[in-house]
Amino acid sequence: MIEADLRPMDRLVKDLGIAVATPEQLENGSPIKSWMAQNGIKHVAVHWDLDVLDPDDFKSILPAEPYLDRSQFGAAIGSMTLDQVIKLLTDVGTDADLVGLTIAEHMPWDAIRLRKGLSKLKIFSE
After folding, report:
1. Does residue 52 contact residue 85 with C-beta atoms inside 8 Å?
2. pTM for this structure?
3. Using an 8 Å Cβ cutoff, are 100 and 46 in contact?
4. pLDDT, mean over the chain
5. Pick from 25, 99, 119, 122: CA 20 to 30 A from residue 79's CA?
6. pLDDT at 38 over 60
7. Nearest Cα to 21, choosing from 31, 13, 10, 11?
8. pLDDT band (50, 70, 90) for residue 21
């Protein structure tokens, strides 16, 4: 991580000494499992932003908007697969009780487009 390139919120994470792991480091789940063991963590609540997922693997996230030019997307684009995250959550659950799970950044583009399209039909507008 190049400190000069950190966004203010990332700099705060660094300044507070919060443990972080990259998607590449998470492939086998060991950084989290090691951190849990070192800190005696027995109960875990997870907040999962779906935008960590690769939009080619999971279509219901902001950067997977149909016809979006991803080079113009104004934020980082995830690289993990759904299978990788599920494995990670499963691995975490083998060493601790998963007591909470929130999911954010869900954007069901196909359902939105279908609703918008069908709303133009007379049968749905009267």
Report:
1. yes
2. 0.81
3. yes
4. 89
5. 99
6. yes
7. 31
8. confident
